[in-house]
Amino acid sequence: MIWGDQHEPRFFEFFLEKHLLKQFRRILSQPGARTGNVAQQVLQTLSIMIQNIRNETSIYFLFSNNQINEMISIKLDFEDEEVLGYYISFLKAIALKFNEQTVQLFLIMDGTDDKLPTSFPLYTEALKLFRHKESMVRAAVRTLTLSVYSIRDELVRNFVLSPPASNYFRHLAMYLTEQCQLLDGTLMSAEASSASFSTDALDNILAEVEDVLVYTNDVLATGCQRVSAMMAVNFWQHFLVPCCFAPLARGLDSSSYSDPASAWIGEVHAGPNGPRGREGREGGREGEQPAALPADDTQGAQRHRLPAQPHVVRAGPSGGGSGAPGVCGDTERLAEHRRHGCRGAPPL
């Protein structure tokens, strides 16, 4: 079929006429075929087809009729590591074909709201694995999400920034906080038993913290202000304040200490270009602080003028067709660095 896509269209037409994708879905839907060799073979075949088809019309036909969405949503046996590996490769192969046109075939609309998709199975199913115990699975999920965030499409962004999908940013910030707390506990254990302590656990935690921070920078570098604002607010409230600043502030006198998030937002709000700064120059009241932003208040983040996020994009691969040069570079370079058994940051 792949050869026919590039040399003889009748081969691909035969594939479509016989509804072979529907047959693949039927196979995977059988309870006994959701694990083992059958599931592995079907997922591998689908990945190879999607990766190697070049004709744009063929890609549209392959992604249409909702068959791919239904296969993505099938509950496979992820306790089988081989099945999980092929499933992740399947999702990545689809994401590499994403652009503003093909992504429309993966958004499901129910007709009640023409600006907000009902579901986006590729994105939501991948997010379920974002804190999987295997580092390569986590890296694949991050690469896929970066491909989604790089797409300049309002429907995609509306879905990503609306509950329950938007909860991912809060969960990611809380996950990073957990990793930092685990790092702190591991360091304390190392100090207590330096003679018998193994550095492998410490290296793994440090690598994960580094990976998440690099991934966060890559998300901010996608250039979508709405996504960046959502990420910034959640990381401030669920990572920076509780994990980084609150421990430092515990020693301060209570009369001189207020909530770090409110104080920081107040300073931004009262800056020379902010509304409080202008009010002060015009004789407004002093000392009034705005309320802290709620976790999901993206508009509030823009209203209070959160600092511009650093768009650090290093030269390197674009993430295999995500549509934003260099966006996935740091995350993918770290993953490749880890695959070769290296520790620390990869060379620039």
Keywords summarizing the entry:
CLEC16A/TT9_N; 348 residues; 0% strand; single chain; autophagy; Leucine-rich Repeat Variant; CLEC16A/TT9; FPL domain-containing protein
Q: Roughly what is the average pLDDT, rounded to an integer?
A: 78
> How would a textbook summarize the main sheet?
none
Determine the fraction of residues in helical runs and give it as a percent range. Answer: 55-70%
Helices, by number, come to 17
Q: Tally the beta strands.
A: 0
Outline type: globular
- State the low-pLDDT regions, or none: 253-327
Question: What's the assembly state of these chains?
Answer: single chain
Radius of gyration: 24 Å
Q: List the domain count as a whole number.
A: 2
- What is the SS-derived class? mainly alpha
Distance between the termini: 41 Å
Element string (H = helix, E = strand): HHHHHHHHHHHHHHHHH
Strand content: under 5%
Structure notes:
- The protein has 348 residues and is mostly helical.
- The protein has helices at residues 2-7, 9-17, 20-29, 36-52, 56-63, 67-72, 81-95, 121-127, 135-149, 154-160, 167-192, 199-220, 225-249, 260-269, 275-281, 298-303, 329-339.
